[in-house]
Write a structure and sequence with these properties.
With 90 residues, the protein is mainly alpha-helical. Helices cover 36% and strands 4% of the residues. Helix 2 (46-55) packs across helix 3 (62-71). The two termini are 15 Å apart. This is DUF2087 domain-containing protein.
Length: 90
């Protein structure tokens, strides 16, 4: 059974991410929360990924969110960044 990690201290009243924790478990949990905003079986452009990240945070750095989503396997991308997608969880 997965442990539920409380990330509310990293969200504002509207559910937007206010910061990424330095602690890995909170950082990954916050990124998982953001990854829920992306649909399975849908291809995204880099611009669409940026817009979604931008919509769900308040600290003005969607680049770091996009990179962290990819680095943590929560989003996949083509090597030329032409297409992003959410991987299926088996």
């Amino acid at each position: 059974m997965e442990q539920i990690i409380d990330i509310t201290k990293f969200l504002d009243n509207s559910g937007k991410i206010t910061q990424l924790s330095q602690k890995k478990k909170f950082r990954v949990a916050t990124l998982c929360y953001l990854a829920e905003k992306f649909e399975l079986n849908h291809n995204y452009t880099e611009k669409e990924v940026n817009a979604t990240c931008d919509e769900w945070h308040t600290f003005g750095d969607y680049f770091v969110l996009r990179r962290e989503l990819v680095d943590n396997g929560l989003l996949c991308r083509e090597s030329n960044c032409s297409r992003y997608w959410k991987p299926k969880n088996d």
